[in-house]
Every structure is written in structure tokens, then in C-alpha cells.
Amino acid sequence: MKYYKLTIITLILSLWTLLSCETFDTEVTIPSYLKVDSVKVQTNESVEGTYHQQISDVWVNINGTKIGTFEIPSRFPILQEGSTPISIQAGIIKSGIHDFREIYPFFKTYRDTLYLQKGKSHFVTPIFQYKKETNFLLIEDFEDAGMRLYPIDTIDYSETIEDPDYTDNHIRKISLPDSVIGFQMITRIPIILKTKPIYMEIEYKCNETFGVGIKVQQATGSYSFEDPFTIIKPQSNWNKMYLNIAEQMYLTTGNNYDIYLFFKSEKGKISTFYIDNIKIITFDE
């Protein structure tokens, strides 16, 4: 029995020694780190509209190899050192659904070369620009005398006002008393469905939900309003959303399309909506 116990103890000690040696003999790889706290968008505002953005993620490639998608802000390890090329693509939350994240197809890839050092954090602020082949079908920033977003109803419950937060900026305000069930506005720029992506960018804040939908027009001239494909929830601060319009168009059969906004009231209060910097974009043929 004593011999048996001694043998077990000897085996345990031998195994511990072996594992300890392997642990200390193995070289530990010390990574460098990439830190992305924010991103920027640069635009030619006269032809591309606002530079405001709501980029949620960065899709990162190091030396030509994808290493992952990271929510902003983020800090992540990189097993590279020395002069290293990096490329970063802008990621968005598609149509306001947090589980649906994708690369925004209209922004150029940001590229740089960093000198990476083990154990050190390297700060990067990617700057994104629209690709030159981007086609702006509509830009409505409410700065011009004309309108590119029209009320459907007889009574117009909307007005262009000076933004109280930025006096050199104008926004559209929609104010609905509870006696009004709803109010619609439409783009009136017939969009032809292509195989290319079509997106709508919109900035907003509101105290009631509103919807975004498509008006489908047939070759015969008849048309129908589809149910809103996106319901936007109340937001006390300005927010921006990227809506994939083409996906909704593919679900219907039509000759061309318009985009409409539907604002609804709530009993017992005045429902107020503010919208700005609406863009509808695709790619040139």
C-alpha cells in the first residue's frame, strides 16, 4: 500500500514538473493593438450633402487578411509588427436593426500603413469618403427654397424651421394634433429598380413613431402604397439611419417607385417630428 501511494505521488510530481517546463519553455507572443475610438466622413457638401454619419463598426484587414469586425469604440490585438498595411471599411446597422450589420457599399475603403510595435496601442481615426461612382438621386437638406419632399395630404402639417441647436441649419418640422390620424410626405422622384444597391439616409428626432415605405407604380400608371417597411421609434436626440430600399423593392412588382414617410399622432398629445439631410443614393451604371 505504501509503495502504491509513493508511486502515485511520484507520477503526480513528474507530471507537474513536465507541464511546468512546457509552460515556461513556450514563448509567449506579445501582440500590438489597434485602437479605433471614432471615424470621420468627408464630403463635398454641394454635391454629396452632409458629412454627418452613424458608422457603428469597422471591418478590419491587416496585411490583406481579414481579422474581424469591431464595434466603435474598440481596441483589438494584432499579431503583426513593423511596417504593416491596414485597410478599414465602414460598417452600419442596416435599416435600424442591430442584428443586421454590413459594410456600407458607398464609402471608399480607408487605407494606411502603420509601424506596429509589440505591446503598444496604435490609434487610428479612419476617414471615409463616398466612392466617385455614387449617384445621388435625391439630397434634401431643407436649405433651398424648393422642396424635394412633398405632402400628400390637403393640409400641410410640416414647415421648414431654423434648427435651434445650429442657427445656420434648417430642418423640417412636422407637428400633428391628436385630431389628425396621420400625415404623409413623398419624394416624387420615380426610382427605377436596378441590380445595384439603393439606400436612403435620414436624420431625425421625434416623440412618436413614424414609418418609411414605398409607393409602387405599374407600367399602366396605377399605383399602390405598400405598408411601411421600417418603423422608426421615438428619439429625443438626433439620430441617423441607413435604410436598404432596394431590398424592399425586390419584394414587389413595379415599373418605378417613390419613397414616402408616414407620421402618426397619439391621442392626448401633439406629436412632433424633425427630419433633415435625407439622401437616396445608388451607383452609376
Fold blueprint:
Blueprint: H1 2-25, E1 32-36, E2 40-42, H2 45-48, E3 57-62, E4 65-71, E5 74-78, E6 82-93, E7 101-103, E8 110-116, E9 121-123, E10 127-129, E11 134-140, E12 150-151, E13 158-162, E14 170-176, E15 182-186, E16 199-206, E17 210-217, E18 223-225, E19 230-232, E20 235-244, H3 245-249, E21 256-264, E22 271-283
Helix proportion: 10-25%
**Oligomer type:** single chain
Structure annotation, total helices: 3
Radius of gyration: 27 Å
Our count of domains comes out at 2
Quickly list its features:
mainly beta, Jelly Rolls, 2 domains, six-stranded antiparallel β-sheet, 22 strands, 12% helix
Describe the structure in your own words.
This protein has three helices and 22 strands. The protein is mainly beta. It has two domains: about 30-130, Immunoglobulin-like, CATH 2.60.40; about 135-285, Sandwich (Jelly Rolls). Strands 11, 13, 14, 16, 20 and 22 form a six-stranded antiparallel β-sheet that branches. Strands 12, 15, 17, 18, 19 and 21 form a six-stranded antiparallel β-sheet that branches. The N and C termini lie far apart (about 85 Å).
In short:
This protein has 285 residues and is mainly β.
